[in-house]
Design a protein that fits this description.
By secondary structure, chain A is mostly helical. In chain A, about 75% of the residues lie in helices and about 0% in strands. In chain B, strands 7-6-8-9-20-19-16-13 form an eight-stranded mixed sheet. A four-stranded mixed sheet of chain B has the order 3-2-4-5, with helices on one face. A three-stranded antiparallel sheet of chain B has the order 11-17-18, with no helix packed on it. Chain B contains 19 helices and 20 strands. The chains are: A mainly alpha, B alpha/beta.
Chain lengths: ~240, ~550
């Protein structure tokens, strides 16, 4: 556990002191801010504000943001030779992987928390369905964790950050297209199965509509666990490969 | 190892890794397909072969890794890693399946959209106590997978709450064309959900099928359809057939079979009835008659037939009269001074006039194609007509006749639809028929607004009359478009002449979240905070840390 917190602390410190992190945050807030103001103008006097606006927007954004946030996590360590040091030191591999993952998930959580300003602003002028928004935020938080775990896994597959990001984008894009599975298969059962294997399949018809289903939480938690375990195995394999 | 990595071409290594990843993913998908359905073995085999090819490509591109992996101890380690990974995936899948089967759902929306309302729960209780099983049959193709998942949340609520008395069946119409064929017309019209009773052998009673409307208010739609199913058979509407009336059965432009089918699809029994036959046998209109429709009769009822109608009305009957006028023909139905015209005037204060409505302001292709201009929506007949922002909800009459509404001492009566102030009642039939010409003649023609649809209700007998000054509006060629024509017919019969709507109408869950109101200065504050302050603050922090790093 000590290794975990050491790695976590190191990663968090790096993130906090990196100008790159703030540039990502600025871009992130700019995009969500534009979406927020567009929705306010569209809803003005006609309908209620869409409670899941920002979380639903992030489902696609994360396909590209998560790989950018994670591409360096393991690939950079390998390329710069630090992984060799980790592996020769008496530290457990899970501590390295968990520490890095928790650090990037924390950063993402802070970004997400900043967007809570929008519902707070809205509550000054209307009665937004905060419970619905809460469900959507819980969903996108887990969804984000799963996308970051995928990014971490692909980062462990290669020492090229670019290739790691590319692989993560491809995997996440496929997993994002869950709502469109019916467009390229002819069987409802197969479309249902494929959709249930995707990220959108566990977000757009549950958290995004204000419903929390335990199986969706199990899916995201399971995906995170599986990817972290895969990442641990990948790092571990460097000891004997 | 590090030396080998640096001497290998990076492109080749990347390709090899991608092949390894692709091969793994394909093999996992192939395995899942095979587990899901053995009928998908060919597809699984194809994916498996592709996965194997990807592995061969990996071995070809990265021969050192392949050789190292195939060494015994490494193979063992890799095998253990893979097996534990698969075991972990299987454990997660098992937990997922268990949790999914528990069908737990936490609806935390403010207005409880995914929770059944009290009225729906009462209805489900009625279904359970009725002892009859009901099936929700819904059709979804692969392209409707998202709709299917959302709708199924509601279906499951009904199934769970009724403890299986209401069961659900989701069908792919392309894979089961036999099951879909009884529903084909509705499916082609974009309707995909149906309710029907199930007999003791578990077979659907197709005659009882009720179509569930398709909207985003699923609970209201399903509960309303369920209610229609429960009351189906409780209402009977008779179509008069011996006065030269429109045919309610045969398909064709000159019939009203479309609206008759609509009534039946709402669980209303419809049957023909001949006043002439009843008069000949001294019989009366059946006791189960919820309403009698006189659809554009061509002749006036005889005194004996009027007596039958009078007896029916005296016991609280309901009459829907579509009183056309044909300017080219002498006589006809309810001409001024005729027995039935006098009867309606005396008993209910309603009288169709011998004139044709011309409305230059609210008309279709000619001034004789009169559109509804003023609608009195305080009664249930007019509530769906001339809806703001929905121009299709007007009604269109072809050669309509005006109706005089006379205040009555013992009967309530009133207007439903009026023409515009620019309209008039054309009485020069000769000019109209021979030259197709019409013009307002001062002192001869009556100036608008004129009433084209009127109602009357006798509180002591509970008899009710809906009189429409046109017969064509409900014919098949006009019944669908504009939609106001359908509403006039359906709402007139179902909501007004019977108490059907009281039995089956469900209000949607009250949506508590109001529209957004904000002053311009508030909007400016939103823009400042969300587009300037927050991203700008982050940019400033990025600048500070970049400066500190450089320093």
């Amino acid at each position: 556990m000590r290794t975990l917190w050491i790695v976590y602390g190191r990663e968090i410190t790096q993130t906090i002191t990196s100008p790159f992190s703030y540039l990502i945050a600025a871009g992130f807030l700019l995009v969500t801010g534009i979406a927020f103001n567009n929705e306010v103008n569209a809803a003005l006097l006609t309908r209620q504000f869409t409670p899941d606006l920002i979380p639903s927007l992030l489902t696609l954004a994360l396909v590209f943001v998560a790989p950018v946030l994670t591409m360096h996590l393991l690939a950079e360590e390998v390329r710069e030779g630090r992984m060799e040091l980790y592996l020769t030191a008496p530290v457990p591999t899970y501590g390295i992987v968990f520490g890095k993952f928790l650090a990037v998930w924390t950063f993402y959580s802070v970004l997400l928390a900043l967007t809570l300003v929008y519902p707070i602003l809205l509550s000054q002028v209307t009665y937004p369905d905060l419970a619905h928004a809460f469900a959507a935020y819980i969903g996108i938080w887990l969804y984000g964790g799963a996308t970051l775990a995928v990014g971490l896994l692909t980062s462990g597959l290669t020492d090229s950050q670019l290739l790691a990001a590319f692989m993560a984008v491809v995997v996440l894009l496929v997993m994002y297209l869950g709502d469109y599975t019916g467009s390229f298969v002819t069987s409802v059962e197969l479309a249902w199965l494929l959709r249930n294997l995707t990220l959108q399949g566990h977000f757009s018809t549950s958290f995004a509509i204000g419903v929390i289903r335990p199986e969706d939480i199990v899916f995201f938690a399971g995906m995170i666990a599986l990817c972290l375990y895969g990442s641990i195995q990948l790092v571990e394999s460097r000891r004997w490969r | 190892m590090a030396l080998m990595r640096t001497t290998r071409a990076p492109g080749k290594r990347s390709l090899g890794l991608m092949a390894l990843l692709t091969g793994t993913v394909l093999l996992v998908i192939a395995g899942l397909l095979l587990l899901w359905d053995t009928a998908m073995a060919p597809q699984a085999l194809a994916l498996g072969l592709l996965g194997a090819a990807a592995f061969i490509a990996w071995g070809y591109l990265l021969p050192e890794e392949r050789t190292r992996l195939l060494q015994r101890d490494r193979l063992l380690r890799a095998g253990i890693a893979l097996v534990t990974l698969v075991l972990m995936a299987a454990s997660i899948a098992a937990v997922y399946t268990l949790v999914q089967r528990a069908t737990l759902l936490f609806d935390i929306t403010l207005d409880q959209r995914f929770t059944l309302s009290d009225s729906s729960l009462q209805l489900i209780d009625t279904v359970r106590r009725s002892g009859r099983q009901v099936q929700i049959t819904a059709f979804y193709g692969p392209e409707d997978i998202v709709d299917r998942q959302i709708d199924d949340e509601y279906f499951r609520l009904y199934e769970t709450e009724s403890r299986g008395t209401i069961r659900r069946m989701l069908i792919d119409p392309a894979q089961n064309p036999g099951l879909a064929s009884p529903y084909q017309p509705a499916l082609e019209a974009g309707l995909n959900t149906f309710l029907a009773f199930v007999d003791s052998d578990g077979n659907i009673e197709y005659d009882s099928t009720i179509i569930v409307p398709r909207s985003t208010k699923q609970e209201r739609d399903i509960s309303q359809a369920l209610s229609q199913l429960l009351v189906s058979g409780a209402y009977t509407v008779y179509f008069e057939t011996s006065l030269g009336t429109l045919d309610p059965i045969t398909d064709g432009e000159q019939s009203i079979s479309t609206l008759n089918s609509y009534l039946r699809s709402n669980g209303v029994i419809t049957d023909p009835i001949a006043l002439a036959d009843l008069a000949a046998t001294a019989d009366t209109i059946p006791l189960d008659a919820s309403a009698v429709v006189l659809a554009r009769p061509q002749r006036d009822p005889s005194p004996a037939e009027i007596a039958i109608l009078d007896e029916y009305l005296s016991r609280g009957g309901s009459l829907f009269i579509m009183a056309d006028i044909n300017p080219a023909v002498e006589g006809g139905f309810m001409r001024e001074g005729s027995d039935f015209s006098e009867y309606l005037l005396e008993r209910f204060g309603l009288r169709p006039l011998d004139a044709v409505v011309v409305d230059p302001l609210a008309s279709g292709s000619s001034g004789l194609d009169v559109l509804s201009y003023i609608v009195y929506s305080e009664n249930p007949i007019g509530v769906n007509l001339n809806v703001d922002g929905e121009p299709d909800t007007v009604t269109q009459f072809r050669i309509a006749r005006p109706i005089e509404v006379v205040q009555h001492d013992t009967v309530f009566n009133g207007r439903v639809i009026d023409t515009s102030e620019a309209s008039w009642a054309e009485t020069d039939f000769t000019s109209l028929v021979e030259r197709e010409a019409y013009a307002f003649d001062e002192g001869v023609d009556m100036r608008g607004p004129l009433t084209t649809v009127a109602w009357a209700y006798n509180p002591s007998t509970e008899a009710s009359i809906l009189l429409v000054g046109d017969g064509d509006f409900a014919m098949n060629r006009q019944a669908v478009s504009p939609s106001g024509n359908t509403y006039l017919f359906m709402d007139g019969i179902l909501s007004w002449l019977t108490d059907y709507s009281q039995e089956v109408t469900f209000a949607p869950q009250a949506y508590l979240t109001p529209p957004l109101f904000a002053a311009p200065e508030t909007l400016n504050l939103f823009i400042f905070v969300s587009l300037v302050l927050m991203p700008g603050g982050m940019l400033a922090l990025a600048g500070v840390f970049a400066w500190r790093r450089r320093a």
